[in-house]
Amino acid sequence: MAALCVENMVAKALAEDTEPHYTTISNFVSGMSGEIEQVFSDVLLVCGSMGLIGGRMFAIDGCRLPSNASKEWSGTKKELREKYEKIKKISKELLKKHRENDRLGKEVQEAERKKLKRLEQKAAQILEFLETHEDRRGARGEIIKSNITDNESGKIQGPHGVIQGYNGIAVADSKNQVIVAANAYGSVSEGQFFPDMLEETERNMRTVKRAKKPLEGTAVLGDTAYFSEDNLQEAKRKGVEAVIPDEQYRNRDEKLKEGERREGKERLDARYFRHVKRGNYYVCPNGKRLAYRGKTKLNRSEGHKYQSKAGDCKGCAYADRCIHSNNKERKQRTLYIPISKYKENLAQKMREKIDKPKYKRIYSRRMQIVEPVFADITYCKGITRFTLRGRGKAAIQWQLYCVVHNIGKCNMAEKKKKKAA
Fold it and tell me: How much is the pTM?
C-alpha cells in the first residue's frame, strides 16, 4: 500500500496525494481488532444484497502462509536451552580468540566485536524467552515447538516444505466463492477449529439472511483434516449436513488406479473386527483373537484396548493393512475402541455415506468452491505471507485479504450488470 501511494495514480488520488510510511499503515492495520469484524460483516451485507450469496452449501479449508518469524528460532524449551548453551560456548571461544589476537588490525577486531555482540544478544533473547514462557501444547496435549520471535505462529507443513507461519482458514459460499467466515491460527491441525469457524459462519449468515438459524438445512464440505466425531456432532447440532471424508476414503475408491491411491491400502480398522460379548474379545479377519487389556487414554480420549498375542500376526496376509508401520517388528495388532460421549456414532455413518455416489458428487464440489479463493488471494493479489506478528494481528490481516476478495466479487458482478445493460 505504501508503494502504491507513491507509484499508482489511483492510489495517490484515494490517499489525497499523501505518502504514508509502511509502519503507519502497519500500525493502522494491527489496531483494527474491533473494526475488522464490522467491515467484514458490512461487505457481506453488500454481497448478499447483490445476490452473490446462495447460503445453501459451503466449503471450508486452510491456506498456509509464512509469518514474520524465522523457523530457525523455533524449538521446545529443551531444544532452545541446548541452543542457548551452544551459543554461549561459541561466544566464549570467540572472546578467547579475540583476546589472543589483540594485536590484529582494527578492522578485524571490530568485525569480531560485532559478531560477539550479535551472539550475546541472541543468547540473551533465548534466555529471556526460557524464563518467561512455558512449552506450547498441541491439540492432543503433546509438546510442540515454540518460537522466540512470534510464539503464536506455528511450524506448519506448507506446499513447499515446512514454514513458520499461520493457517488462514476460510469458509466460502458455493454460489460465487464469497468468503463468509475467516480467521487465522498458528497450528497445522486445522480440524480442531471447525466448531469456531462454524460458529462464525452462523453469526455472519444470521446478519445476511436475517434468520435465527441460517445454517439449518445447509451443507458444509471439508477435507479429511476436519474429520472427527466432535466436528460431525457440532455440525448436526446446528442442523448442518457435514460432508467430510475419513482418511481412508481415497483408498476405498475403486475408480482410482492403484498408483493414484495413497501408499498401501485401506487400513483395517474396528469395522473389520467382530466383537464377541461373551468373553469381551474381538476376532480379526484372519480368525485370531484380540483379548481385552483394560482402559487406556489416547489423544485426550479414553477407550478400551484389545490386543492380539505376540505370534498370532506372524505371516498373516493382512499384516501390511492391519499392523501399524511402527509396530511391525512386534507383529502384534492393538485395537483401540474409544468410549463415545455421544449416543450416535456419526463418524461411522459418514464412512458409510461418503462412499455412496450421491455424496461423492457432493464432495467433488469442494475444490471448485474453496480453492479458487486461495488462488485469488495468494496468486492474483500477491499475498504470500503475513507481515504482522501475533495471532490476533495475523487474523486481522487474513480477514482484510478476504474482505478485498469479496469486494472483488462485488466489482465483477457490477461490471457484468453494466455489460448486460
Answer: 0.81
